[in-house]
Amino acid sequence: MKRNTTYTALIAGAACLTLAVTACSSEGGREAGGGGGDVELPDMTVAMITHEVPGDTFWDIIRSGAEDAAAKSGIELEYSSAPEAREQANLIQNAIDRDVDGIAVTLAKPDALEGAISDAIEAGIPVVAFNAGLEEWQDMGVLEYFGTDEHVAGAAFGERLNDVGAEKVMCVIQEQGHVALETRCASLGEAFEGESDVVYVDSANMPEVRSSIASTLQADEDFDYVVTLGAPIAMTAVDAVDDAGSDARVATFDTNRDLVNAIQGGIVDWAVDQQPYLQGYLAVDGLWLYNTNGNTSGGGTEPVLTGPAFIDETNIDAVAEYAERGTR
Predict the structure, then answer these.
(1) pLDDT of res. 43
(2) Contact in structure between 227 and 199 (CB atoms under 8 Å)
(3) Is it the case that residue 28 has pLDDT exceeding 50?
(4) 20 to 30 Å CA-CA from 237: which of 95, 212, 231, 306?
(5) Which of 322, 315, 309 is nearest to 11 (CA)?
(6) Which CATH superfamily includes the segment(s) 21-149+275-308?
(7) Domain range list for the chain
(8) pLDDT tens track for 302-321
(9) Is 229 in contact with 203 (CB distance < 8 Å)?
């Protein structure tokens, strides 16, 4: 069977926009220069609501991008999170009650959030989605989506496993039912020509993650790759491989500072980057653009893709300096 060996996915075109803003005016608004002269810009409050699991450094990068976008445009950013979808829906309702000017939300479990998002839209609050919910955001009436295509990412990962000669891989999902994570492993399994087994763990309990991966490796010595879906899980998987005395290699989706160092040191083979800093930044900036100029990125019909792209020994040094800043 002929297969595609080009596994570096292209990031969809994105336009860069630089907006110059000055200090707050005496009336409490902000003045901005533009082709039509100085205009008074309204103060804004944006609620960002994610499914963050405490301790997952991925969300620090998301938040860093969001905070930088907010600071650039004089936005008050209210960040909150809850790993349980029902609690996340309650946070959306709280933002509606506070009459915020915009909501940026992750749709890891969209069915549980549909009612709250509908309430926000009915209240006249613009909503954008990011990070999770690529296939659901339009049906939910959300204005824009910023994130990666998990089907493309998973398939590219599976092709790369083929290219390195892997025969049996463990795909570790840290949150069962999370649409993006489930799609990654499913798409990987479809593209991978070997055997792919899914193992579910709870990322809120890292000792359990370590022991589950180690025990699975000990029970089946045929695993030659452990595939994780987050940088902290990858680093724990490295320890689990050692615990099991396994020869399996580790590769992952997503990065953080430790993961970048691990790739540089040859401890982790590669990572698929979805640029979380960019997701957080664009979600906030998208609400600013909509509220101040009626703009919608992607025309309201297409997602704005921030990935995927591979990071490995060939390009890791170019990423390292940004990882030190906490933005990659």
Answers:
(1) 85
(2) no
(3) no
(4) 306
(5) 309
(6) Response regulator (3.40.50.2300)
(7) 21-149+275-308, 150-273
(8) 999 999 999 999 999 999 99
(9) no
